[in-house]
Design goal:
Helix content is about 50%, strand content about 15%. It has twelve helices and eight strands. It has an eight-stranded parallel beta barrel, surrounded by seven helices.
């Protein structure tokens, strides 16, 4: 069965909306592992729109099952990744400042020299490298030639397809996954997967890992909200109870 690796970026997205310290993505990573995550994934973007450098450092000290770092293949990000000694895996993804989220796979064939150099540098730093690519055989060939050990197939086209296109995209994923495995590459998949569409992808033979983030965090907002409300109500009740016992707000503050 494919392992579930949980991407926690969007916990940080919510935090950065207020530029404060909650919700804490590190705490989210702990809960994800308690829920059965095989590893934790985070994307340190060049514009730092969600995860921050200190988040990565804290995650490395906290997670038990290993941290995967998504990043652009740029000098800045390579320098940062080289400074971390215990990453489970470095994952090169394409990145544009104007995009809301990753819009496509990394064009390894078209940017071969820079990608190959980045893979070599990460290997020298002791990091296993995965390339996030579109499900195309030409990209698989380029990834293997560049020295990557792992490819992550971009499942966005499948997730966004309608009608007969869904079957076509799934068939493409199946074909390319099989092709990559025959070339000796580990095959993972991710992007746009949710409770409604993940099962067929999980059934692809030989698939090792599914990297899923947004849909899990979105679902958690719903299924976890009841408990959050109950706990907030309980804390409000605690304040009222202490006040009824004659404690002033300052007295209650001193207890925190």
């Amino acid at each position: 069965m494919a392992k579930l690796c949980v991407n926690i970026d969007h916990i940080a997205t919510l935090r950065q909306a207020r530029r404060i310290d909650e919700p804490d993505p590190v705490a989210g990573a702990v809960l994800a592992e308690l829920g059965g995550a095989a590893s934790i994934t985070c994307h340190l973007r060049e514009d730092r729109r969600h995860m921050q450098d200190h988040d990565v450092a804290r995650l490395l000290k906290t997670v038990k099952n290993g941290l995967n770092l998504e990043m652009a293949c740029t000098n800045e990000m390579l320098d940062i990744a080289a400074g971390f000694k215990s990453l489970r895996m470095v994952m090169f993804v394409p990145e544009k400042r104007e995009e809301v989220t990753t819009e496509g796979g990394l064009d390894v064939a078209g940017k071969f020299d820079s990608v190959a150099a980045g893979v070599a540098r990460m290997a020298a730093a002791g990091h296993k490298v995965s390339l996030f690519i579109d499900a195309r055989r030409a990209q698989i060939d380029a990834a293997r030639e560049a020295g990557a050990q792992v490819v992550e197939l971009h499942t966005g086209p499948y997730a966004n397809a309608v009608g007969d296109g869904v079957c076509d995209e799934l068939a493409m994923l199946m074909d390319v996954a099989d092709y990559a495995q025959h070339l000796g590459l580990q095959v993972n998949a991710g992007h746009g997967l949710n409770l409604r569409n993940v099962a067929p992808v999980a059934a692809i033979g030989g698939l090792c890992e599914l990297h899923i983030g947004h849909s899990i965090i979105s679902h958690a907002v719903m299924v976890g909200l009841e408990r959050a409300v109950r706990e907030m109500r309980a804390e409000i009740g605690r304040g009222e109870m202490l006040a009824a016992r004659g404690l002033s707000p300052l007295d209650i503050l001193a207890r925190y």
